[in-house]
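Agenda item 2: flavin-adenine dinucleotide complex prediction
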Amino acid sequence: MNNPYRPIKTEVLDVITETSNIKTLRLKPVEPIEFRAGQFIELTVPGVGEAPFTPSSRSSVKDMMEVTVMKVGKVTEKIHELKKGDTVGLRGPLGKGYPLEDFRNKEILVVGGGCGLAPLRALMYELFENIGDFKKVIYRGGCKTPQDFLYKKEINEWKKEHKSVDMRLTVDKGDPTWKENVGVVTTIMDGISMDCKNGIGIVCGPPIAMKYATMKLLDMGFQDENIYLSMEKNMSCGIGKCGHCRIGIYYACKDGPVFKYSQIKNYHEIWD
Ligand SMILES: Cc1cc2nc3c(=O)[nH]c(=O)nc-3n(C[C@H](O)[C@H](O)[C@H](O)COP(=O)(O)OP(=O)(O)OC[C@H]3O[C@@H](n4cnc5c(N)ncnc54)[C@H](O)[C@@H]3O)c2cc1C
Ligand code: FES
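Presented output:
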């Protein structure tokens, strides 16, 4: 059996600057890694440490993976200094991703904000590749400013390629270049026409955005068990041994990071 603590040697194929504090790394592990959208990996920078990230790339591509990383501290600063040709370590995939098989024949509303658009990019690729399986797919994404908007160009391409998918974007603070909505992400959840009672709601983003988007979904009539949240708790082992990532009776690393709202709604720490 593979040692779950052993990182796989991984080459940095490319580094893409997304915004002033976010970069996407294109990675090639020496062994192909199969993941599903919503699962995470632990990325090790030799001599510095490791940190969890959710792949943002297409899960159907097995020999290459992208992670989109916001610079916030020690490990992520070093990740931002990596260059093409450098070597890192990668453990995973870890945890549970989005159960696409449970979404078949349903209407799906995907809501994301900020760095939460990274895991949702992997999810959108999976939805696009299987679009005939779902009754309807709706995407709502928000960021602070147009300059902070992850994958803005790519999402605009999606709009042209996938006309059946209703996509809208918003920023908290606009500028003259911004032609779409201005306001927090919940403002573009108004007026959505879908079967909320039986629909699937997927939310990923900073805790405050997840809280208000979840409340909005509940107001719209979504059921607790049909709302999926991606929980970013402090992690260490990543495999359910150390207890760092506890949410009530659950370990976010092993039982999540994707949870149904009905599983965790009674634990006050979910929005911390
Ligand atoms: C399952 C999972 C998936 C994740 N996926 C992604 C991803 O795809 N992309 C990504 O950029 N991040 C992701 N994160 C968050 C990422 O793991 C942390 O940002 C990272 O571990 C920080 O490590 P550090 O050593 O750079 O910061 P540290 O030195 O540990 O922290 C520095 C400071 O930043 C604060 N901080 C830590 N994390 C965050 C954060 N997320 N946002 C704001 N402030 C923070 C800390 O409280 C501390 O004050 C994910 C986390 C989890 C648990
Ligand atoms: S990170 Fe160790 S139990 Fe979850």
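Discussion summary: Residues 235-238, 240-245, 251, 253 surround FE2/S2 (inorganic) cluster (ligand 2) (CB under 6 Å).
Owner for follow-up: CH.
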